[in-house]
């Protein structure tokens, strides 16, 4: 469905499975730190998806080639995910999902290998609402946001509190989500942009659509996270 344009001789970066405590719960995540990382991007997935999402893993790999570390997080525990698959109980619990993103942000801040890296957030579907809430709660830690096909309308109540650069990416053939994103764009307080991918539907399954998402996300995150790099920041290994 999509293919990397990078050279085969370039080394692959190993991914590490990690656990993040969230009060009495523990959530699982996959951490990848490329050499010379200049930022870290936390991925928050939407309902029915996980850190194993092929689309988000592919976008994450493109960010890794741009020297950005990535943390792909399952916002629900395995038991919660199993229950949600049957009942839908958690998928629109944006406050719970946002709380898990905040815990992930705080976890990054405690890890020696990555704690000095500026943090970006990448949200898809309902995960996009969760990252907006999290950015409003951690304004000093979050430096940039990207939303892919996001239900950002579910975070409209805090949109005026989000002051970091925010890129909303929506498919041209996803009219309902496009309308919702246009509505939320104006209240955002930081640098903001709505990027419409021509010919793309909600899942960006069309030829070249996900490549366009990755290119836009990488350019936005590299630009804005590079501005936020602290002196002496960088990966020290894992």
What does this structure look like?
This protein has 238 residues and is an alpha/beta fold. It has one domain: 3-Layer(aba) Sandwich (Rossmann fold), CATH 3.40.50.1820. Helix content is 34%, strand content 21%. It has helices spanning 54-65, 78-87, 94-110, 126-137, 175-185, 209-227, and strands at residues 15-22, 25-32, 40-44, 69-73, 119-124, 142-148, 166-171, 192-197. It has an eight-stranded mixed sheet with strand order 1-2-4-3-5-6-7-8, sandwiched between helices. β3, α1 (54-65) and β4 (69-73) form a beta-alpha-beta unit. α1 (54-65) packs across α6 (209-227) and α3 (94-110) packs across α4. The longest helix has 19 residues, at 209-227. The protein is globular. Mean pLDDT is 90; it is low at 4-11.
SSE topology:
Layout (H helix, E strand, L loop, with lengths): L14 E8 L2 E8 L7 E5 L9 H12 L3 E5 L4 H10 L6 H17 L8 E6 L1 H12 L4 E7 L17 E6 L3 H11 L6 E6 L11 H19 L11
Parallel strand pairs: 3-4, 3-5, 5-6, 6-7, 7-8
Antiparallel strand pairs: 1-2, 2-4
Helix content: 25-40%
CATH class: Alpha Beta
Number of strands: 8
Question: Unreliable runs, pLDDT <50, ≥5 residues?
Answer: 4-11
Secondary-structure-based class equals alpha/beta
Fourth CATH level, the homologous superfamily: Alpha/Beta hydrolase fold, catalytic domain
For the residues shown, what is the average pLDDT?
90
Order of helices and strands: EEEHEHHEHEEHEH
Counting structural domains, the number is: 1
């Amino acid at each position: 469905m999509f293919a990397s344009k990078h050279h085969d001789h370039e080394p692959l970066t190993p991914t590490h499975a990690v656990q993040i405590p969230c009060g009495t719960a523990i959530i699982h995540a996959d951490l990848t730190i490329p050499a010379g990382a200049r930022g870290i991007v936390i991925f928050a997935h939407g309902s029915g998806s996980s850190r194993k999402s092929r689309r988000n893993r592919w976008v994450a790999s493109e960010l890794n080639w741009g020297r950005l570390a990535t943390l792909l997080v399952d916002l629900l525990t395995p038991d919660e995910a199993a229950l949600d698959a049957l009942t839908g109980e958690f998928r629109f619990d944006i406050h719970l999902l946002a709380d898990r993103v905040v815990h992930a942000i705080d976890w990054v801040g405690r890890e020696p290998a990555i704690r000095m890296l500026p943090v970006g957030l990448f949200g898809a579907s309902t995960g996009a609402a969760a990252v907006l809430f999290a950015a409003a709660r951690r304004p000093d830690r979050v430096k940039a946001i990207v939303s892919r096909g996001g239900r950002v309308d579910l975070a409209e109540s805090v949109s005026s509190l989000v002051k970091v650069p925010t890129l909303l990416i929506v498919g041209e053939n996803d009219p309902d989500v496009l309308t919702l994103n246009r509505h939320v764009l104006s209240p955002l307080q930081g640098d903001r942009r709505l990027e419409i991918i021509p010919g793309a539907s909600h899942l960006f399954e069309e030829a070249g659509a996900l490549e366009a998402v990755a290119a836009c996300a990488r350019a936005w995150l590299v630009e804005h996270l590079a501005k936020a790099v602290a002196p002496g920041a960088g990966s020290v290994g894992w």
